[in-house]
Amino acid sequence: MSTRFLGLRPTVTAGRLQTFAARSVAFLALVDHSPGSTAFDLGVIGVLHQDAIAWLGELEQAEILDVDPDGRTRDLLKRAVQTGERLYHRARDKYESTMGDPGLEEADRAAESSSTESLIAAIADYHNTLEDLREQIETRVALASKGTGEVFTSVEALMASLRD
Amino acid sequence: MALVVTSFEFTPPYKTDFKRAPPDIQSASDRTLKQLLTNSNSGSLRLHTLKGYPKPTIFKIDVIGHSWQITFEMIGSKANLLRLGTHKELDRNPRKSAQDASDS
């Protein structure tokens, strides 16, 4: 479970970051594949989001650049982001369906739509933090890579080399 | 914010991103980098510094007319191109999104 809940601050290493990403995918699969109540989904997403915020904060303070030498963490985060998007659209569909259900009493509709709105917001926040984290990692990996050594003073020559 | 950019270099990840980008994004990145070379202060670039990295000279610009961005590091007056990509944001407010959809 999250290092935050063990009272520990995550120290950034490539291995620990990969473990965090794998854990995120595993817990998101739990939400994705179980019928689950909105309260359960909200709880899991909330914990995952706090974990992601902690890792993003630590990464922003860290000097390490090559945080994903084999690309595995980026692949896992991409999967987590895609699952987050699927859960988001599922919750949006549920929201639309609740709002348009003529069989629901007004009080029931209000309660159901309110909890689904909370879930949509939580998934969006979590997804957006994962995207920030993915971008941090991608940029750090690029910073760690060596340039080609070829310097271009014209954009035409640059484009020709990129298309080569 | 304005930068003086006189030359470019690119990293292998940038080339990978470029090769994967759709043709219209590749063409737009051409126009964008020409704009960066001639006038980095242009509003269409939305040039800004990125914080949270060990180096203070990381910048991002918009690919003109698209939701894609170019990230680069300034080394003197050379822009070392790091990434070409998108940053997807989900809207946390379903009511607002529904309204946006009905407006469009």
Quick structural gist:
Helix content of chain A is 73%, strand content 0%. With 164 residues, chain A is mostly helical.
Describe the structure in your own words:
- By secondary structure, chain A is an all-alpha fold.
- Chain A has helices at residues 14-33, 38-61, 72-99, 106-144, 155-163.
- Chain A has five helices and no strands.
- In chain A, helix 1 runs parallel beside helix 3 (72-99) and helix 3 runs antiparallel to helix 4.
- Chain A is elongated.
- By secondary structure, chain B is an alpha+beta fold.
- Chain B has a five-stranded mixed beta sheet.
- Chains A and B meet through helix 3, helix 4 and helix 5 of A and strand 1, helix 1, helix 2, strand 5 and helix 3 of B.
Q: List low-confidence stretches of chain B.
A: none
Name the assembly state: heterodimer
Largest interface: A-B, 45 and 42 residues
Strand count of chain B? 5
Strand content of chain A: under 5%
Most strands sheet of chain A: none
**What share of the residues of chain B lie within helices?**
25-40%
How would a crystallographer describe the biggest sheet of chain B?
5 strands, mixed
Provide the spatial order of strands within the biggest beta sheet of chain B: 1-5-4-3-2
The number of helical segments of chain A is 5
- What's the overall geometry of chain A? elongated
How many helices of chain B?
3
Average of per-residue pLDDT values of chain B: 90
Low-confidence segments of chain A, ≥5 residues, pLDDT <50?
none
Question: Which structural class fits the helix and strand makeup of chain B?
Answer: alpha+beta
Category from helices, strands and their pairing of chain A: mainly alpha
H/E series of chain A: HHHHH
